[in-house]
């Protein structure tokens, strides 16, 4: 499973580095390079999440899915990270069910749906939305797409099932990417 996930990450990196969707007139989000020297002083995405009590449910899920090593990797990654409150919006028992060993494959799919290969700052996402007529399709590491759009000055993600999540905090630095906190878990 790890080899499959790492292969998907490599493949996703190749396609997401361009972040181009044919429906978006070939306009793209520009990835930001990560400086290797920065990694010495900054924690990884997992380290940042572990250090923030608002992401404790996400951290538990990442551990249960066996994704700690992957998200501690070189990246760069952009993570749309659901807060504890976002997980709290799921129907009762959903989180507990996803954390069970027999749900690992489903949990992995849900979590990797929140990850984009490449580092994309909030300004890059907003520019891509504006350059593409008000919405932009983003291919996730999981393989499905999220659609980013603006509602007022907020970036909203629409998932494959039509669910919406608002970005509530942007550009949280990590040595291997960037985190944008979201208020609702998106589903593939």
From TrEMBL:
<protein>
    <submittedName>
        <fullName>Fasciclin domain-containing protein</fullName>
    </submittedName>
</protein>
<dbReference type="Pfam" id="PF02469">
    <property type="entry name" value="Fasciclin"/>
</dbReference>
<dbReference type="InterPro" id="IPR000782">
    <property type="entry name" value="FAS1_domain"/>
</dbReference>
<dbReference type="InterPro" id="IPR036378">
    <property type="entry name" value="FAS1_dom_sf"/>
</dbReference>
<dbReference type="InterPro" id="IPR050904">
    <property type="entry name" value="Adhesion/Biosynth-related"/>
</dbReference>
<feature type="signal peptide">
    <location>
        <begin position="1"/>
        <end position="19"/>
    </location>
</feature>
<keyword id="KW-0732">Signal</keyword>
<feature type="domain" description="FAS1">
    <location>
        <begin position="42"/>
        <end position="186"/>
    </location>
</feature>
